[in-house]
Amino acid sequence: MGSASFAGLRVLALESRHADDLAKLVAAYGGQPTVVPALREIPRGRDHALSFASGLVSGHFDMVVFLTGAGIRMLVNAAETIYPREQLRAALGRVRVVARGNKPLAALREFGVKPDFVAPRPNTWREVLRVLDDDASTQPLSGLRIAIQEYGVPCAELLTGLQERGAYVTTIPLYSWSLPNDPAPLQAAARSLVRGEMNVLLLTAGVQARHLFQVAGAMRIEESLRNSLERVVVASIGPTTSEHLRSLGLPPDLEASQARMGFLVKEAAECSARILREKLAEPGVDFLHELGSRMAAASPLRDVLMRIVDFASAVVKCDSCFVYVLEDDELVLRASKNPHLSELDQLKLHVGQGITGWVAQHRRPVAVTQNAFHDPRFQFFNELPEDRYEAFLSVPILCRDRLIGVINLQHRAPHSYTKREIRLISTIGFLVGAEIEMARLEQTSIHLSEELQARKFIERAKGILQRELQLTEQEAYFRLRRQSRQLRKSMKEVAEVIVNEGTTRGWEKKGA
């Protein structure tokens, strides 16, 4: 099996249909397999399949979307008890056929049907809509009668997307998923995870995790289970499963490069030991030391804020990181991972405005795993490309219970922030607040010192002007100001020339 090896790690898989094959694969790669069923398929009867076949043959559909290979075979087997296979094949030839990836494509080829569209990888509902949108100039979806072959659970996003585009959608529910008849093995697996007896969790469908949490909830150990899974490598067979897992608050640590069981096991064997070391490595002293050493250096406020951006982005890998600082009653964008030179120091939010303002107002973290721009608290800004990012983590920066600012992390793809990630970024928010305050005080002190120095020069220059030109104090001040404007220099610079020369003789020329 090459260099890929679980090296004795304990691997749990929640597989039903291919349990024996999966166990043999894990063992072949040096793992200790435990395979338990997490679901059972419940046929919905022939009525739905026959109703679809009748509508297809009668010309009641313009398009059919097939989502799974198993569903196609189930549909054909039921329908051909009434309609000859040739008649079904001919009816499909009169409509547009869409396959969600290679598995339904293979099943359609077995049936002798060539689809008009095949959704590319990663084969989610998004790719199905994308290929149809790309063809919209030839065949708009508005008004089309579309049948969708469902699997296990309805694909609500695809259904909604088609309806929003004006299509009339009919679903074909062939089977549903339920808990196994005997939930005891799944309950034992949940207890085993809670006790820390498993190192790797292999998932070939998102519903497996949903059922795992369901039985854990009934056992009143769901929170303990979720905490335990932060110390387990969670491996997903593909994008559709990964998306389902994120919606459950269980982001996968690994996703197979191809949605095949063999790829899942091989790649999990290759990566699990490394991922497990990273997940088990507590930040502890090293985290505090690294953060402290970065903050300890006496630096201007801008440098301090950029260190916060760099450190937060390193702790949680993200596509974008912003730091807002509270100034008066507004949150001002002061630092960014990506260059936004036109918005930096210009973009301002009121406390309570948008997700960032909500976090500032309530002083609590907010984590949005996907579709952040649909969150009712979200505030859209045309200036920022990050406004279209999917996931959003926002935490307050505090000092002695006073709000100092807000740290925002964003991801282009859906991302479920673990409790550990939220705690780490929140800890940064707690620890850097005092450093920001110190840098601001130093900045204010420097500014006041410079102002005081400028006033001293101006006062001394006024005195010289009054003495040599016989001017009043007010006249001397206006003379300095007029010269400053004419030369486009500060009054301090003009005053320095007079003070350094000790006389007004030729000062108007020398100030130039």
Put simply, the count of helices is 19
* Uncertain ranges: none
Q: Which of globular, elongated, flat, extended, rod-shaped describes the shape?
A: elongated
CATH topology of the largest domain: Beta-Lactamase
Report how far apart the termini are. 80 Å
Percentage of residues in strands? 15-25%
Helix content: 40-55%
Instruction: Give me the side-by-side strand order of the main sheet.
Output: 15-14-13-18-17-16
Write the CATH architecture name of the largest domain.
2-Layer Sandwich
Measured on Cα atoms, how large is the radius of gyration? 33 Å
The top level CATH class name of the largest domain: Alpha Beta
Number of strands: 18
What is shown here, in short?
By secondary structure, the protein is of the alpha/beta class.
